[in-house]
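Page header: ASSEMBLY MODEL / two components / 448 residues total.
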Amino acid sequence: MRLPIGINEQSAEPLYHQIEVQLRALIVSGQLAEGTLLPSIRELAQTVKCSVITVKRVYSDLESEGLLRTRQGTGTYVAKVGEQERDRHRLTAVVEALDQAVTTGKRNQCSEEEMIELFNEAIQKHYRQGGKTS
Amino acid sequence: MSDGQADQAIQFKGIEQRKPNFKLGPITLDIPKGFITAIVGPNGSGKSTLFRMVLDLEKPQEGTVHVLDHRIGSGDDAPVKQRIGYLPEESLLHDDKIKAFEKARFNSYWYRNWDVNRYQELLLGLQVNDNLPLGKMSKGMRRKCEFALALAHAPDLLLLDEPSSGLDPLAWKAMIEMLHRYMEHGDRTILMTSHIVEEVKRLADYIVFMAQGRVLGVYEKDELFSSWFTFFISGEGLSAQTASTMPGQCGVESIGGHSFRITTSKALQADQWCVAEGITIISKQALELDEIMSTLLQQDGISKRVHEARGNSR
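Prediction written out in full:
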């Protein structure tokens, strides 16, 4: 199975973190159902073009968060994600993306007012006009 | 110490070799089991010599080589060699006259684990015909045959010296995929050399830099690539002197006004430093493998000269 995970080599964010955020989102959003067998470490490393060391770290981090479980000899599976867990993780990706946006704004010398204005514009675009978002 | 040994496929300990025009070592280097390690470095830095030492084709004057928990040159090396696949950089001249399938038959006699089905499968995957004398084949075709010959006995340790030289892009891709599939079997190890940046990026887990017979450093690949960046920064009244205090700085260049282009080996710290100093990051760019290598070589040259200068002043 090929996971929809992409990396940005130009980002200073560590690779393992980039992959972790995306894989976590896939699990928490339910796109990867409970019991799904994930690609082997070597396989995922090959598709993402990173080293197995990085993927090992991602799998073990998410395992200790309770999102994955490894069965000796058979592979790594998506674990059962509880409601509470889901809620807790649901927003982390969003918070991160907003943080990224603000950082970019600061880099381009945006003032606080400008940022808020831009944020409101985006809200307007996605939530109010046309109404539907997916 | 002994528990560490089981995790290493190859251990070079204090290797030294002096030839009339070349000195190798001292080198102490561990190649971890279950991973792909790529040695990169300029021509003539001693990479192939290390490979030959693993197979006892060359002996170090000092130091020891342990391969798969066996000390090379102590007693019978044959059982360990059964578990190694070797693709040398240069084709063997005395193979020129024989056909590839004859060479395969020869190998099948010596390698207990020789798997003829596997050999056929590899040939098929690389789309090559083995009914030709090796010397009559094109360079790429011969490389493919030799690649299949090196892999057909499912070795635990694979030594690949410039594996892709002469291969066309399609064959190259097939080879990369075969090597990934080969590694799926968790505890196998590849030690390789390559001058092709993309190949190292696609395959390696660890990267070893070598130059002039010495190891400059061993790095985990992803960590290496995420550490080396070029920053373009600017700030009110920013001076070259301040710019040069960026963590991991390996070169500052003024690009006009209060803007500078800085290469750093500590991207994360450099990033935080910019924030703390109130310096604007205009943009940043990850370094390619060859750029990292040339910077490391430069640094090594500088530190060596400083070292020598200090030595002389005493």
